[in-house]
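Re: weekly structure request thread

Next one in the queue (134 aa):
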Amino acid sequence: MKRRHRIDEEAEINITPMLDIVFIMLIFFIVTTSFVKEKGLEVSRPSNAPPKEIKQDKGPIVVKIDSSGLISVKGRILERGAVEANLEREKAEKPASPLIVAAHPEADTEALVTILDAAKAVGIESVNVATSSQ
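Done, posted below.
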């Protein structure tokens, strides 16, 4: 009897499917990655130019009404007819400032109405009424 000499075949690993899976996973991760632009602060560097003069237009326009019904702006007592002109001048100096009417609790309502009408005529949009003890 003849002996058949069998050549032992070595087991080989086929890596082609493994490479296919690795490439598919690589494509998947590249496609699903979100590219986020990081936020930062913009810094303005100082220049050699001389500093600009800053106009002080901050702060409210304050009109006071005392207990006797006298109207005053910046410490000056006004007549009822001059309220609109003074508010117009104050608005020209401080265009975005609100108007605060500081009225004494015992002041007459006519002075308050005069100021509110003048503010509306001048175009002041933000009007606040407060009480003052003076």
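The beta strands are 61-65, 71-73, 76-78, 99-103, 127-131. Helices lie at 16-32, 83-93, 109-122.
Next request, please.
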